[in-house]
Task: inverse folding
């Protein structure tokens, strides 16, 4: 892609991705870079409509395959209409979740397997990968504390799945990062938001220096 960069933040529920996406965008803007902050599922009108279908499903909910297809369809619209044009115009796109969430949730915990998710991504988004994926990792105790403050007992159709599902999501993320170390930076998400932000700035330094 052009001269911008594409950075994804990944991790399980309650790892602090949204807070860190906002802090990172603010730091990059202060350095004079143009930033676009976005999220998945969502980011465009069409993808936000699919988000609503995924997180508050009608009827009895989606089966694993339909769910994976809907995520891939939302991502396709998001890449085509927002991410690709923004990076080509020179922006730094900071995305709260991307492909690796589908690999960890639907492919890993959902049992569809990595090859199926990568095949859908090839069809939907031409296989686009971020320049860097920041995987934020926190202990289960910290997650439980943060979720009880954030959700107040309410969660969506996927966040509300059982502890084993979310444990498997965490394992799957770890395996993906171990398999493709050049594409991932693993970030310790424990401590204050500022402490985690400092770690993230250190992790993106190599790609920041490419643009100087
Ligand atoms: P959010 O709460 O981080 O915005 O994400 C919404 C939920 O969707 C969250 O439980 C993770 C899940 N998800 C997937 O299962 N697969 C995906 O590809 C993405 C992007 C999110």
Result:
């Amino acid at each position: 892609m052009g001269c911008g960069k594409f950075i994804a933040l990944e991790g399980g529920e309650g790892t602090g991705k949204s807070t860190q996406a906002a802090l990172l965008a603010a730091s990059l803007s202060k350095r004079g870079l143009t930033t676009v902050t976005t999220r998945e599922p969502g980011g465009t009108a069409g993808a936000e409509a699919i988000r609503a279908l995924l997180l508050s499903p009608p009827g009895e909910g989606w089966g694993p395959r339909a769910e994976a297809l809907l995520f891939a369809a939302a991502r396709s619209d998001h890449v085509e209409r927002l991410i690709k044009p923004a990076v080509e115009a020179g922006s730094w796109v900071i995305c709260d979740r991307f492909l690796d969430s589908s690999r960890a949730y639907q492919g890993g915990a959902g049992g569809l397997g990595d090859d199926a998710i990568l095949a859908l991504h090839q069809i939907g988004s031409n296989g686009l990968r971020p320049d860097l994926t920041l995987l934020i990792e926190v202990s289960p105790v910290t997650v439980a504390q943060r979720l009880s403050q954030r959700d107040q007992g309410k969660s969506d159709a996927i966040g509300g799945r059982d502890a084993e599902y979310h444990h498997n999501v965490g394992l799957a993320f770890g395996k993906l990062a171990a398999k493709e170390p050049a594409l991932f930076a693993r970030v310790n998400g424990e401590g204050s938001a500022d402490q985690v932000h400092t770690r993230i700035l250190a992790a993106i330094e190599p790609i920041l220096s490419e643009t100087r």
Remarks:
- Residues 25 and 31 are 10 Å apart (CA to CA).
